[in-house]
Specification:
Elements: E1 7-10, H1 14-26, E2 33-36, H2 39-46, E3 62-65, H3 74-83, E4 92-96, H4 101-109, E5 114-117, H5 122-139
Helix pairs in contact: 1-5, 2-3
Length: 146
């Protein structure tokens, strides 16, 4: 039986969170989606500390990361992931509303594997999330240590 790896969704906006979960469910992914609502919670999850000290072993197949987060912003979360020997190989997709050239450049400079601007239109938003979920959680083959 194939074990499906988790997806970590780091998103503080309730509407974007619900739309993303709905879009992932529509493409029938069997992957479990874990949610962090701020950067500090994402880092606690990834490092199995705080309320996540008992979380199941293993890294998510992909992290979908918003940039504008409370407590610790997405760039800092990304930097800490890519500096960690245990986390640096996890694919990170920045999923944000920012089209700023500076944010795009900073995202890739910090080690993002992809940068996706959240479409404003509902249909395009759902399509983009489905494509991301299918590629990163199903099609992409991560290193076996992830």
């Amino acid at each position: 039986m194939t074990e499906f790896k988790r997806i970590l969704l780091v998103e503080d906006n309730r509407n974007d969170l619900e739309l993303t979960l709905m879009a992932l469910a529509e493409c029938n992914l069997a992957n479990k989606v874990d949610i962090a609502r701020d950067g500090e919670e994402a880092l606690d999850y990834l490092n199995s500390r705080g309320k996540y000290v008992q979380r199941a072993f293993g890294n998510p197949a992909v992290i979908m990361l918003d940039l504008k987060l409370p407590k610790v912003n997405g760039f800092e979360v990304l930097k800490q992931i890519k500096e960690s020997p245990l986390l640096k190989l996890i694919p990170v997709v920045i999923l944000t509303s920012s089209k700023e050239d500076r944010d795009i450049m900073d995202g890739y400079s910090c080690g993002a594997n992809a940068y996706v601007v959240k479409p404003v239109d509902f249909v395009n938003f759902v399509r983009a999330i489905k494509e991301l979920g299918l590629f990163w959680a199903v099609t992409n083959v991560p290193p076996s240590i992830c």
